[in-house]
Amino acid sequence: MIVVALVVFYASRSLFQGLLLTLEHHIPRLLGALGASNMGNSCVCRDDSGAEDNVESQSRQTENSRVHVPEARSHPRDPVRPPRRGRGPHEPRRKKQNVDGLVLDTLAVIRTLVDNDQEPPYSMITLHEMAETDEGWLEVVQSLIRVIPLEDPLGPAVITLLLDECPLPTKDALQKLTEILNLSGAAACQDACHPAKHRNTTAVLGCLAEKLAGPASIGLLSPGILEYLLHSLNFQSHPTVMLFALIALEKFAQTSENKMTVSESCITDQLILLEKWTDNPDYLKRQVGFCAQWSLDNLFLKEGRQFTYEKVDLTNIRAMLNSNDVSEYLKISPHGLEARCDASSFESVRCTFCVDSGVWYYEVTVITSGVMQIGWATKDSKFLNH
């Protein structure tokens, strides 16, 4: 019995010593893996509390001598994936991201969104959260002006979407933006061979004029900005710049005081020259002509000028767009055959001709780029501008 007890005792002691050696060998490796996992998670937005952050930071400090810094993320984040909430809009790592890259990511992915119920792309959500501070908002606006290419047909739409969803800028932010842009008539002539910057600037001004109201809109239309927009209507400018400068002036004119200010600037003389482009074979110039004519008929009236609808020939037109069956912000041409939307909402109109039997077809000339839907509608269909 004594021999058996001694054998069991020595065998147990050897097993226990072996187990200790195994644990001493593996514990540092396990701690290293756990530490690396925690540090890797710190690169993304987490659903953790401030207390957990403190525990995590203390853990990293004690294990610092044993844990290697993990390698940087080898693959870019999926721009469609929404962020994990937790730290809020002022989380430092999110603010350090490349604003230009987020804008271009949004431009690339926005064309894949086909449903109102889809999650906004991660890049758009991040930009909106960055714009919750004055500094972040100014960074986003400057990036929109700087990086959106002229040739992308959805560029102006992305500018509108981003600015429309961002919080309203403060008075200080608007003042700082005016100082940064430093717009004037001379600025409109600079970089004429690179019109993207001017197109984006006029698009941003138009969005802000529509978004703001009252004193904020009046304060934004400084003499320098008004001079910049008016000089952008000169024939030396790119037609796209002329178009968005004219749209910006329309948006500013939604405030009565601004409308009076623009009207007193002799803008009608330039619009009468641009009105001649309404039938131009160049579709960009044709859009400028359409907007110039619409402004002369509805906003900036010139004394002695006959309204276009009073002189247009409707003899051979048997069906047209119905000006009494249309949503609020759609522009319809005097002959009722063209419609244009420059609002951030989705506007609609029906035709004056009803089809209830037989076989019919329609023909459409698409003059502009952008998002549109053309088709058949019943009398009971409702126009929802969202």
From TrEMBL:
<keyword id="KW-0479">Metal-binding</keyword>
<dbReference type="GO" id="GO:0008270">
    <property type="term" value="F:zinc ion binding"/>
</dbReference>
<dbReference type="InterPro" id="IPR016024">
    <property type="entry name" value="ARM-type_fold"/>
</dbReference>
<feature type="compositionally biased region" description="Basic and acidic residues">
    <location>
        <begin position="63"/>
        <end position="81"/>
    </location>
</feature>
<protein>
    <submittedName>
        <fullName>RING finger and SPRY domain-containing protein 1</fullName>
    </submittedName>
</protein>
<dbReference type="InterPro" id="IPR013320">
    <property type="entry name" value="ConA-like_dom_sf"/>
</dbReference>
<dbReference type="GO" id="GO:0004842">
    <property type="term" value="F:ubiquitin-protein transferase activity"/>
</dbReference>
<dbReference type="InterPro" id="IPR043136">
    <property type="entry name" value="B30.2/SPRY_sf"/>
</dbReference>
<dbReference type="GO" id="GO:0051603">
    <property type="term" value="P:proteolysis involved in protein catabolic process"/>
</dbReference>
<keyword id="KW-0863">Zinc-finger</keyword>
<keyword id="KW-0862">Zinc</keyword>
<dbReference type="InterPro" id="IPR045129">
    <property type="entry name" value="RNF123/RKP/RSPRY1"/>
</dbReference>
<dbReference type="GO" id="GO:0005737">
    <property type="term" value="C:cytoplasm"/>
</dbReference>
<feature type="region of interest" description="Disordered">
    <location>
        <begin position="48"/>
        <end position="98"/>
    </location>
</feature>
<feature type="compositionally biased region" description="Basic residues">
    <location>
        <begin position="82"/>
        <end position="96"/>
    </location>
</feature>
